[in-house]
Amino acid sequence: MTATLNYIKDLNRETLDKANSTHYMKGARKGLSRELVEYISKEKNEPRWMLEHRLKSLEVFLKKPMPSFGPDLSGLDFDDIIYYAKPGEVTNAHSWDQVPEDIKRTFERLGIPEAERKYLAGAGAQYESKNVYHRLKEKWSKVNVIFEDMDTALQLYPELVQQYFMKCVTMHDHKFAALHGAVWSGGTFIYIPAGVNVNQPLQAYFRMNASSMGQFEHTLIIVEKGAQGNYIEGCSAAKYETPSIHAGLVEIFVKEDARFRYSSVENWSRNTYNLNTKRAIVEKNGVMEWIGGNMGSGCTMLYPCSVLRGEGSSADHLGIAFANTNQIQDTGAKVIHVAPNTTSKVVMKSLSKNGGKAVYRGLLNILKGAKGAKSQIKCDALILDDHSVSDTVPDMKIAENDVSIGHEASVGKISEEQLFYAMSRGLCEDEATALIVNGFIEPIVKAMPLEYAVEMNRLIELEMESAGAVG
Fold first, then answer.
1. Per-residue pLDDT tens over the stretch 8-32
2. Of 270, 302, 334, at which residue does a domain stop?
3. Do 306 and 282 form a contact (C-beta atoms < 8 A)?
4. DSSP per-residue codes, 296-318
5. Domain that holds residue 454
6. Domain ends where: 302, 318, 334?
7. Are 348 and 317 in contact (CB under 8 A)?
8. Could you tell me if residue 388 is inside a domain?
């Protein structure tokens, strides 16, 4: 663990923004077409049903309008994006020694191999459109846990994938779900059998390296009756002047009496449009936990969703968003109470600085028949200067009377009194500000595994340091 924490201490913006050679991009085609979709499917040797799904998704994408809410997406030119690229002739290795040297060095700088050795049940790594590494520890494969990249899972478990693929989020949900359905590549497939408790986290890390790149990984997780699991995703991208897009999709199926925790730290570069979709369907007495940190990207639209379909099911949503210079972090949570006696809790924190804009956008929908539903929502914003912005856009739809709903929203700045108190204990102003910020985000960070909690704090320190703030 010491080596991993030392890596995080040494983490800097250059580590995250630096690109490797992109020699493999020679001849890569920009733009979206039927021919490209057919090429992707043929390249992956996919079954006929998947090709048909891709082509139908393309049709839907071309007809769907852009979102009518949220940040301005006019700077995103779909014709100037590379939708599929392989990082050379790499294989999906099961040993880090088999990963090409330049790619391996990238993930070593990000601490992935060390984290796997120390505390993970398994790890995966994706570079551009292709998985370059994937491994599950033997003790878990012996109890029939499946942890594969999505391309491999489609080959090995086609019927299981077909049963669940884009059934939680369909191609008709919105324009970027349809785009994902057409060009998805890579990602993670997890299946935890009934009654199995995977008490070590599984992890995947997604990296974009080339300019004008699009990454569309698909994460599909099935947690059977009485099972438990914990999954962590990390994301980053090299920095360029041209726009990139990330439109991944996460589908989680939590069965009766099952429990699952999904954590993510998304730290894309400033030139990235992060337009991700995440949703879980939770059955009777199931528990779904979302923990997320969003920073880095120039524009984010991300609202993890829990559909509480079974009686007694519950969901917790915890999240942090940091909006810095030229950034819009439009994030939040959606909870749909379908069944009786369901509960949800949403705690969201945002920081905005140097003219950044942070938006909490939430939906609470209690359907007819969801008697006894309970929900508590709390969103807090901390503005760190006089020219940054924070907005709250809640949407509540309540179709039952026998429910308990609470909603709190607060926005504030660091007061002179707080700074004075901290500085009277011997801290300089920058240290005092950092201490107050760390206390503000502490409820979210403490829910993460140790290494990720430390990394989250370090990433926020980097954001605070940029443009001459806290060091």
1. 444 455 666 777 777 878 778 899 9
2. 302
3. yes
4. S-SEEEE--EEEE-STT-EEEEE
5. 415-471
6. 302
7. yes
8. no
